[in-house]
Amino acid sequence: MTKIQKEVENMIANRIRKYVNEIGFPELYYCSESQKVDYIQKMALLINELLSGPNTEKKFENLANKSIENGKNNKEKYQVFKMLRNLLIHFPFFENWDDIYINENLLDWNKSKGNQIKRFFNKNEGKELKYAIYMKRHDKWEKEIEINIKIPKIYKYKKVYLKDILTIDEAMWTFCIIDYYLDQIGYKLNYHCIVSA
Asked: Per-residue pLDDT averaged across 39-56, rounded?
């Protein structure tokens, strides 16, 4: 990796850490739904840029799947994280969380990424995925929230709404698993994780 690549990745990592910190503060929960959607789409863009580096996503996937400190069911957690990222990045035309839907017709519009989302739903159809989000406080990983979601079947035309799978707050917390990666890889972070109690 070149010096400029490291510099850019550190800048992106610091911006993501700033967003992760803000998710833990109560003020965010008083934002409007459209503000939250804008917030999470920006976070998804930054994460996508960071993970587009050489072998970066593979390193993150390995860490996410093997993390002991970050709770159990890490594979399920990572699958949901990846599905959300792909959906928000490659289908960015929704302003409100309650309006975001998927069906096979929509996913076929962008086949390369749509197929990844489709595989997630086909693989997990009917399953209940449970996972916890941990955040670092004073050098110790502590559980912040537990998330339980049931994966429905997707159809060619019938709309399946994302709000019926998980709330926007649960989606924002799910994106926080990136913080474990930032902590482990060793980016030069100007922001310390200071999630509020």
From this structure: 86
